[in-house]
Structure formats: structure tokens, C-alpha cells
Specification:
single chain, 233 residues, 6-stranded mixed sheet, 26% strand
């Protein structure tokens, strides 16, 4: 089986206010396969969010290559990168980032509408996905009318509505209590396998990391298999 998402020799350097270089990632390699869940763990500030931003084409690496479905990001122009983010990658963040003036079904339909799907078809697809994540009775509720767990489920529905190749999740349960966090973990792990979608999750949550097929430790800018002690940290 071929990897759906690959990074080779990835390096990211920022320049501080004093013009000093800050190296966050250095010669990082990663390969993720369809239906696989990979947890990225490590100390705060290790670069987990930076890595997800690069994998999601939200930022550019200083050097190295990222490929989705064998296609290198470096070959993509601005319009193609927009298409990639909207159609082939799903994002789930710690905070849901739902549009407060829109209902749940309107929020979930938004990526489809941006992609040019007619309104009725987009809403029907969004309603189907919301039912899949357990929000059938909340289609017409606005974010302020949803609980924290429901808001994050809505965000997951928005991330998968276009059936992406990859889901990138950055501390997805970090803003939830234990019960709602566990429910979200079940949902994410189940969806990755059901949809045969690659899932890369950056997390400090041990329970979520333990759901993964692989746990990778990010340290000094590179990834390696986490030790048992690191996986339990």
C-alpha cells in the first residue's frame, strides 16, 4: 500500500526579532497510509502545530518536500493549494472555529458551497454527515445553542464532509471535559477507519494517543517511534 501523505527532509526555520534563526523542524520524515491513525506527541513547543500547518499546506517549509497522493506541494500554485485544503484535507482544531451566525448544517455545508456544490445538495450532504456524528437533532442549531462536545462534533463533520484523503487534528479534545473528550476520541478513530482516511493528530492526551496505530515522538525537530514511557506521559 502506498502512503497517502509523505514528508521527506522537512525543515522549518523562523527568524526571531533579533534576526536569530529558530529551527523548529529538522530533516523530518513521515509517511501516513489510508485508514491509519498516527499520533504526534512531544513537549509543548516541540513543533507539533507547525508540522500540521505544513502538512495541511497552511505554511511553507524552509526546505524538504511534502506530497499528498504522490503530488508534491511545491508544484502547486495558489489556486491548487486552495483546492487541496478545501477538498483533500480536513482540519480539526482545539477550538471549533464554527461561524456563529450560521446553523450546524450551514457550517458543515460551507466547504461544499465553496467548492461550487449547489445549495440543496450541499445541505443534504451536510445533514447526512451530521447524522453520522450524532447530531441529527441539532441541524438547525447555531453554535451558541450547542454544547462544547456538540460544537466539536460539528467541526469534525465539517472536516469530513468532502471525504478528504487526510484529516489533520491539532489537540482536538483539548477544550473538552473528560467524557466529551472520550466521545470525540471514539468518533475520530472510528471515522478514520470507516472512511479509509489517514488521520494525523497532535495531542498531549494519552487516551487519544493510545487509540492510534502509531505514536511518534517529536523531539529536536525530528520524529521517531515513542518509547513506552513517552507514550504514557
Amino acid at each position: 500500500m502506498s502512503a497517502v501523505l509523505e514528508a521527506n527532509g522537512l525543515r522549518k526555520v523562523y527568524v526571531g526579532g533579533d534576526r536569530a534563526e529558530i529551527e523548529v523542524l529538522n530533516a523530518l520524515d513521515l509517511a501516513v497510509y489510508p485508514g491509519e491513525m498516527v499520533a504526534i506527541v512531544g513537549a509543548s513547543g516541540a513543533g507539533k502545530s507547525t508540522l500540521l500547518h505544513l502538512l495541511g499546506a497552511l505554511d511553507h517549509p524552509t526546505s524538504g518536500e511534502i506530497r499528498l497522493g504522490g503530488r508534491p506541494y511545491a508544484s502547486l500554485g495558489p489556486a491548487d493549494r486552495d483546492h487541496l485544503r478545501n477538498r483533500e484535507i480536513g482540519f480539526v482544531f482545539q477550538f471549533h472555529h464554527l461561524l456563529r451566525e450560521f446553523t450546524a448544517v450551514e457550517n458543515v455545508a460551507m466547504p461544499l458551497r465553496i467548492a461550487g456544490v449547489p445549495g440543496g445538495s450541499a445541505r443534504a450532504r451536510a445533514a447526512d454527515v451530521l447524522e453520522r456524528v450524532g447530531l441529527r437533532e441539532r441541524l438547525h442549531h447555531r453554535p451558541a445553542e450547542l454544547s462544547g462536545g456538540e460544537q466539536q462534533r460539528c467541526a469534525v463533520a465539517r472536516a469530513i464532509v468532502h471525504e478528504p484523503r487526510v484529516i489533520l487534528a491539532d489537540e482536538p479534545s483539548g477544550n473538552l471535559d473528560h467524557r466529551h473528550g472520550r466521545e470525540l476520541h471514539d468518533l475520530l478513530a472510528g471515522l478514520a477507519r470507516m472512511l479509509d482516511t489517514a488521520l494525523v493528530v497532535a495531542t498531549h492526551n494519552r487516551e487519544l494517543a493510545e487509540r492510534a496505530d502509531r505514536i511518534l515522538w517529536l523531539d529536536h525537530g525530528a520524529l521517531r517511534a515513542a518509547t513506552a514511557a513517552e507514550a504514557m506521559a
